[in-house]
Amino acid sequence: MVWTRFMDMHSGGGCKEPPYEKILIEAPESEARVIFYNRFGHNPDRVTCTCCGNDYSIDQSDDLAQATGFDRNCEYAYFDADGNEVPESNAWKSGVGMINGATAKYVERVNTKYTYRCNYVSLDEYLARKDVLVIRATDIKEEERVGEVPVQGYVYI
Q: Does pTM surpass 0.85?
């Protein structure tokens, strides 16, 4: 099952669902947006402040480890078509993107390029943080999966 990550951008100056800086929902993005609205009562695409932008940055990942890899400072690695790890230059070309059937993903080791950002954190340690909310598929009520997400806040035209 895929995961959708909602990262609070502090638009308007504060956390929208304190203490949660990151909310992870086990559902595809389109469904997770509805679940988010039904749980919290506001559109995650809402713009609280026009100078700050959207309230949340939203992205979808194949699994929980990938959804949290950046936040946990995991290394981002490149793999050839056979699944062997290769240097970035063998997998990605500027202006083209991934080449020769290569793929990329987060791996469970410290990101040596960006250690100044934060230290590596294991998935279990990360999920235990007070500012991270994980909503698993088994914890989602059927009625939370249906509905419309209304437009809220400032709207750019």
A: yes
Tens of pLDDT along the chain (157 residues) come to 899 999 999 988 899 999 999 999 999 999 999 999 999 999 999 998 888 888 999 999 999 999 999 999 999 999 999 999 999 999 999 999 999 999 999 999 988 877 666 789 999 999 999 999 999 999 999 999 999 999 998 866 5
DSSP string, 4-45: EEEEE--GGGS-SBTTBSEEEESS-HHHHHHHHHHHHSS-TT
With contact defined as beta carbons under 8 Å apart, do 101 and 80 qualify? yes
